[in-house]
Amino acid sequence: MPLRQGHKRTNIKMGFSAKDLELTKKRIRSKILAKLNSQKEEERKRKSELIKKKLFRTTVFQKAKRVMFYISFDGEVNTQDMIKEAQDLGKIVAVPVCVNDRVIKPCILRNKARLIKGPYGVCEPAIKKLINLEDLDLVIVPGVAFDKKGNRLGRGKGCYDYFLKKLTSRRVPSIGLAFDFQILPSIPASSEDVSLDRVIFA
Fold first, then answer.
1. What is the pLDDT of residue 22?
2. What is the pLDDT of residue 95?
3. Alpha carbon of 109 to those of 84, 122, 200: distances in Å?
């Protein structure tokens, strides 16, 4: 389901206040995080494998030489096998590292690199070798919930929102990964939110 790069969404209904928007996001976030944490591990692995196969079949992934993944945690779609297989295919893999409270940057992930926990408990390479956004061919994006238009709801820290705005200005394609219960009819989005190009789920 290709989407127009960097397309901005308006609030889902007229007069939808910023406070209402945040309360709605908070309720969705709480509900989906509970489902992520309660999903059985064998089901998580099975669906993650299906998602990996769909991703690896896409033209944009096959053509990409430098792919930024996220290192999964807390019940997210498992990316460890994807990262290893991408490296085996000869692709350069990058992952996000936090350089301050809200800013993430792509960092090269070497095969069998030592990982440490970052500011929010997400693993990142112990030795940092940053690369420029414009050097990426594709970015794989995590999220708590998505809709089929590419709108995304994160964990509320704002790191990826800021990152995606820079990403779209450089025309780097983005793909979200999700389990089927993370796909909602619509995600509340303001005019400042940036949608993803595609969401792959199973």
1. 75
2. 97
3. 10, 14, 23
Domain boundaries, the chain: 18-201
Q: Each residue of 167-185: pLDDT tens digit?
A: 877 789 999 999 999 999 9
Neighbours of 42 (CB within 10 A): 8
Give Cα separations from 7 to 110, 196, 198 (angstroms).
33, 8, 12
Instruction: Assign 8 a pLDDT band (cuts: 50, 70, 90).
Output: very low
| Burial tier of 194 (Cβ tally within 10 Å: 0-12, 13-18, 19+) | buried
CATH number of 18-201: 3.40.50.10420
Six-digit token string for 135: 């050097």
Query: 172 Cβ partners below 8 Å, 6+ apart?
Result: 133, 134, 136, 137, 138, 139
Q: Which long-range contacts (CB under 8 A, 24 or more apart) does 1-4 make?
A: 1/148, 1/150, 1/198, 1/199, 2/197, 2/198, 3/149, 3/150, 3/195, 3/196, 3/197, 3/198, 4/197
Question: In the Cβ-directed half-sphere of 67, how many Cα atoms lie within 13 Å?
Answer: 25
